[in-house]
Write a structure and sequence with these properties.
The protein is of the alpha/beta class. It has three domains: about 180 residues, Glutamine Phosphoribosylpyrophosphate, subunit 1, domain 1 (4-Layer Sandwich); about 200 residues, Glucose-6-phosphate isomerase like protein, domain 1 (Rossmann fold), CATH 3.40.50.10490; about 150 residues, Glucose-6-phosphate isomerase like protein, domain 1 (Rossmann fold), CATH 3.40.50.10490. The protein has 19 helices and 24 strands. The longest helix is centred in the last third of the chain and has 23 residues. The N and C termini lie close together (about 10 Å). The structure holds 2-deoxy-2-amino glucitol-6-phosphate (AGP). 2-deoxy-2-amino glucitol-6-phosphate binds next to helix 9.
Length: about 600
């Protein structure tokens, strides 16, 4: 939530920051802003409500030589969306950008206001600016001024501070994402919320620990240096070569990243199986299986939580190990029963979701082993867990998660095979590989028939509301289908267990309501009866189910045929692709901003 970036050095700091912000815009797009120091040590700043493009048009006539620059893209937490509340916040020669929440901002604000600081915004972030400037006014040097200010803040935050007096940038974080990047020549250095923002500008990426000050300065031999809060040098950081390529950040011929990411799914399914069966992944799966968990506590948010439900079914059915799936935001405060010997399993695309991280921390406190199924290598979750199963989805840019869901579920399925000992036998490995390749083929088949789904989307997108229904293994994908539609098409949609509608929601059914009914081979007749109940109340039925079943075909207003033969347990993932495309085309007919839907941010780093 919120993207922050900073760059010092001769290689176009402003352009680098704007490029970084454009890559971080998925983290929030309520407003954008930059501040920079020129070669005369003057500070300049610009900020604008709305998307980054609004800010860029303000900067067209900028002619100064930029020495260092910081920038921000906002997802509002404190204070409405307007120019004043946009970052950076600036006072004298200091400018700051912030991602997170300063929990004790109200009391600090009162204190600083009574000392005479004139606040210009309603944000919590400006409190940090006030603390830093007050420390500088009291004679502190830049580093202790930031360090002491940081110590006074409660809550999870990352800050980047530009000092135009010294032409230096300092960054620090607690429980929020922050990385630093170094240009090979040691001439330029950057900080940002995410390594993705630094693709093309940094060859080495550093991952500082919490409460480590990252200083970008030309006054030292190394343009990046790390310090503890007491000002001593810090070794609390990791580094690795930047592995992401610019190509991955391109939409190619697709109109939206979301569509590109949907189409990547068959290829990613094939790569995943290759890695975990033939590559390095098998050892990792076997290592985790050797933990012999008594129970899994699966915790995640949003789409990742629905993937968790799919994984629960894989593990409980194949391994008969109990699995509890809980939303991380509930799990962390519910005082759940946790025991040593049980395993915390955390699912996340970003690896930075605040609630999921807190849930992981709770399991660690309870002496449990923790495992992630995660996309971003090096993310906080990745670093905090005992072991990590990477889902190998590549960068996911569309705010609505698609390929990550599929890869998370498929990775969880491989874990269940490993626990069952199936990776010990070449014959069983071949059977698994065949299943994954059949799934990839079937997804390819859905993608080839996209026009059918587009046609259905065109027919239904203007209805009042949507119920996605499914039983058993299809219930999680009913929930996920509804979430996808809500977030990108801005229509009311709910995911429901097919048998549950009659316990209340059926009161909503009339001829303006659509039921997207997932009908698998299991419990076929019962599911048909549930659809009949909707049909009898004039609901519009879109059936996603097997071909040639007249009982189903006869009650559907619209039908999309699915071939479940030989796919059994992986079929929810296949059905889900049809839901993804339905949501995508309904949003397209509605004319919404598909890759950056309103009010959302891809990485939810506040609780
Ligand atoms: C999915 O489309 C969402 N945008 C959202 O629900 C997301 O899955 C959730 O915020 C969890 O994110 P994570 O996977 O990065 O932890």
């Amino acid at each position: 939530m919120c993207g922050i970036v900073g760059h010092l050095g001769p290689n176009n700091p402003m352009d680098t920051v704007l490029e970084g912000l454009s890559r971080l815009e998925y983290r929030g797009y309520d407003s954008a802003g930059i501040a920079y120091v020129d070669d005369k040590s003057e500070l300049h700043f610009y900020k604008k409500k709305g998307k980054l493009a609004n800010l860029v048009s303000l900067l067209e006539k900028e002619k100064h030589t930029v020495v260092g620059c910081i920038g921000h893209t906002r997802w509002a937490t404190h204070g409405e969306v307007n120019d004043a509340n946009s970052h950076p916040h600036t006072h004298g020669k200091i400018s700051i950008v912030h991602n997170g929440i300063i929990e004790n901002a109200p009391s600090l604000k009162n204190e600083l206001a009574s000392e005479g600081f004139e606040f210009q915004s309603d944000t919590d972030s400006e409190v940090f600016l006030a603390l830093v400037t007050s420390n500088l006014k009291n004679g502190m040097d830049f580093l202790p001024a930031v360090s002491e200010a940081f110590k006074r803040t409660d809550g999870n935050s990352a800050f980047v501070v530009l000092n135009a007096e010294t032409s230096e940038i300092l960054a620090i974080k607690r429980g929020a994402p922050l990385v630093a990047g170094l240009h090979e020549a040691n001439s330029d250095a950057s900080v940002s919320s995410d390594p993705y923002a630094l693709v093309g500008s940094s060859e080495t990426i550093y991952f500082p620990g919490d409460e480590v000050l990252v200083l970008l300065s030309k006054r030292h031999n190394d343009i990046i240096s790390f310090y503890e809060l007491d000002g001593t040098e810090s070794k609390n950081y990791k580094s690795k070569k930047q592995e992401m390529s610019l190509e991955a950040t391109d939409k190619g011929d697709f109109e939206h990243f979301m569509l590109k990411e949907i189409y990547e799914q068959p290829g990613l399914t094939r790569d995943l199986i290759q890695f975990y069966l033939a590559g390095d992944g098998a050892d990792l799966l076997n290592k985790v299986s050797a933990w012999k968990p008594e129970k899994f506590h699966i915790s995640a948010c949003g789409t990742a939580a629905y993937a968790g439900m799919v994984i629960r079914d894989f593990i409980e059915q194949r391994n008969r190990i109990p699995c509890a799936v809980e939303l991380a935001s509930e799990f962390r405060y519910r005082n759940p029963l946790l025991r040593e010997g049980e395993v915390g399993l955390f699912i996340s695309q970003s690896g930075e979701t605040a609630d999921t991280l807190a849930a992981q921390g709770l399991c660690v406190e309870n002496k449990m082993k923790t495992l992630s199924i995660v996309n971003v290598e090096g993310s906080t979750l990745y670093r905090d867990c005992d072991e990590n199963l990477l889902i190998r989805a590549g960068i996911e840019i569309g705010v609505a998660s698609t390929k990550a869901f599929t890869q998370q579920a498929l990775t969880g399925c491989l874990l269940s095979y490993a626990i069952a000992g199936d990776l010990e036998s070449e014959e069983k490995k071949k059977t698994i590989a065949d299943k994954y390749s059949l799934l990839a083929e079937r997804i390819d088949d859905i993608l080839a028939r996209v026009d059918e789904l587009k046609k259905i989307a065109e027919e239904i997108y203007n209805y009042n509301g949507f119920f996605f229904t499914g039983r058993g293994q299809y219930f999680p994908v009913a929930l996920e289908g509804a979430l996808k539609l809500k977030e990108i098409a801005y229509v009311h949609a709910e995911g429901y267990a097919s048998g549950e509608l009659k316990h209340g929601p059926i009161a909503l059914i009339d001829d303006q309501m659509v039921n997207i009914a997932i009908v698998g081979p299991a419990l076929f007749d019962k599911t048909i009866s549930n659809i009949q109940e909707i049909k009898a109340r004039r609901g519009v039925i879109v059936g996603l189910g097997p071909k040639g079943e007249s009982d189903l075909d006869d009650i559907c207003d619209f039908k999309f045929d699915l071939n479940f033969d030989g796919l059994e347990e992986l079929s929810p993932l296949y059905v889900n692709v049809a839901n993804q495309l339905l949501a995508y085309y309904m949003a397209k007919f509605k004319g919404t901003d598909i890759d950056k839907p309103r009010n959302l941010a891809k990485s939810v780093t506040v609780e």
